[in-house]
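**Paired protein data**
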Amino acid sequence: MFSQIKEDISCVFDRDPAARNTFEILTTYPGVHAIIFHRISHTLWGKGLKWLARVLSNVARLFTGIEIHPGAVIGQRFFIDHGMGVVIGETAEIGNDCTLYHGVTLGGTSWQAGKRHPTLGNNVVVGAGAKILGPIKINDNARIGSNAVVVKEVHEDTTVVGVPGREVVRRTNKQKNRAEVAKKMGFDAYGATKDMPDPVANTVNKMLDHIHKMDQRMDKMCIQIRHIGGDFDIEPLPKIKADGFDEEEIKKKSNIDCSNT
């Protein structure tokens, strides 16, 4: 349980650029407070101390505005951003590396006992105000848009928006490769695409494609070297840091360049 809580705190740095240090997260992030309370209440629930678990979860709701039933199963590195109004039902299941924003409901559509709440796969993001209702599956890497109402299964790598929720985007293999390379480099490709001018975004994406091809060739070379008896240490690639990077200045120069073309 304590290792899970440690990972829940650490993942905030990756998903909230406003996070500055661990002390600040521990003392000012209600989403972190809610998940810490839930880890404890869920352990009590599993030991049969159900009344005590419910009392503790209600204390958490009182202080955070986030209601998580102690019976809900939540994976590693879970993050609730802002958090006010989030409701997670008893039979909900959430995979690893998932993110929920404020006003999200993982609710049921039946009063019958048994599985009645959603199951979220790994790396799922649910936007503010979204409602996911019933014992449905939201598969890995799905994105649920803000205020969407989802009542049926969502496929992998798919974005869902609207009322009722409908699938609008499924990522291509090239986009998946870009995301994998960007993650390895410690770089958010989609953040760059959204915020930068189009020529810059296109250039960055082509660089990611090129790096992906280079990775594939290097992997093949390593396999061949090992096959002929070569022995060498493999260290993980260092992340690219943005020290000294003036984003506003780059944007200004990019806009000037675009206007001159």
